[in-house]
Automatic annotation (TrEMBL):
Gene3D superfamilies: 3.20.20.210. Residues 35-328 form the Uroporphyrinogen decarboxylase (URO-D) domain. This is Uroporphyrinogen decarboxylase (URO-D). Pfam families: URO-D (PF01208).
Length: 334
């Protein structure tokens, strides 16, 4: 297997060059220990040193953005290692008024960039690092859980006032992440789904703030990645975002990679079914998904990755099958 510098490989895929070795990145949570910055940094470094992925998607606990506003969270054994909100911070409409500006360098927010800085020093610039950032509307949903949908439709001014605060704190956090050693952000939205909101609603309460964050980073980082979580995503709307990488559950919901290429001309990240094939499939079946993704895109502007975070039980043999198929795709026998 040829040893190609991660930065050179990423630069080539961003240009649209044909690649002998397709870039790969997979990411997972490190539950419980991810709440300790030092342990999270060490896990990140060990994960990257073991697998030599082409970018590092930093993996803070998924509830970090709500804890400083009073949400209680816990890891309750989810197969993907994610924490959940056990007690919402916003229970009534008037509680949105309590969402006041925070110092993004303190508390749970600050811990994530402390951890990232430690990981960045350990990796010493060898690979691009993306800090995970939740869209303001995603953070708002975690603050209020399912009650947010009623407030969006019945009390929009209260939601917008809180989103203004959340966005400002998120921008501060993103800029601190770049200073800490991140080369861009992984912006995750969990509400850009036709099952949850109308396009008009998402444009008002979601996209407006998402794009403000991305614009605040313009010229300050190497590249950014958008992750659209869930089913029936608003691909037409999201494909206009100013990002270089786009990731979603392409094996589970529309569009597939081939149709996505018609609407998003930059780099697609995906091709793997992390819920099924990576957990239950044979190495040959896993390699088959990799090869199919390459075929759908002609191997250009593609990074092989999961639709979302890996289950913590994903076997090393499954990850190895992904890496080998992508890096040696011209010689893989199916």
């Amino acid at each position: 297997m040829k040893n190609i510098d991660h930065w050179k490989r990423m630069d080539a895929i961003l240009r649209g060059d044909a690649m002998e070795q397709i870039p790969v990145s997979l990411w997972r949570h490190f539950p419980v220990e991810d709440t300790d910055p030092g342990k999270l940094a060490r896990h990140t470094i060990a994960w990257q040193e073991k697998w030599q992925f082409d970018f590092v998607k930093f993996m803070p606990p998924g509830t970090f953005s709500v804890e400083d506003w009073g949400a209680a969270t816990a890891y309750t054994g989810a197969t993907n290692g994610a924490r959940v909100v056990t007690n919402a911070a916003v229970k009534r409409t008037e509680d949105w008024k309590e969402i006041r500006h925070l110092n993004a360098r303190a508390g749970s927010w600050g811990q994530q960039n402390i951890a990232l800085a430690q990981a960045a020093r350990g990796l010493n610039g060898s690979v691009p690092i993306l800090q995970t950032v939740f869209s303001p509307l995603t953070t708002a949903r975690k603050l209020a859980t399912e009650g947010i949908f009623a407030d969006i439709r019945c009390n929009p001014d209260a939601i917008e006032a809180a989103l203004r605060v959340i966005t400002d704190v998120t921008i501060d956090f993103c800029l601190d992440a770049i200073r800490a050693g991140a080369h861009g952000i992984f912006l995750a939205t969990q509400l850009a789904s036709h099952r949850l909101l109308t396009v008009t609603e998402y444009e008002r309460f979601g996209a407006k703030y998402d794009i403000e964050i991305l614009e605040a980073l313009r010229g300050r980082c190497q590249f950014n990645m958008l992750h659209a979580h869930g089913d029936d995503i608003m691909f037409d709307l999201l494909s206009s975002y100013p990002v270089q990488l786009f990731n979603w559950h392409d094996r589970l919901t529309d569009p597939d990679l081939r149709r996505a290429r018609q609407k998003f001309s930059q780099v697609l990240v995906g091709g793997l079914n992390e819920h099924n094939t990576l957990v239950r499939g044979t190495p040959q079946e896993i390699a088959g998904e990799v090869m199919d993704a390459i075929e759908q895109t002609d191997g250009r502007r593609l990074i092989i990755g999961p639709g979302c975070v890996l289950p913590v039980a994903t076997a090393d043999s499954a990850i190895q099958a992904v890496v080998e198929a992508a890096r040696d795709h011209n010689t893989v026998a199916l």
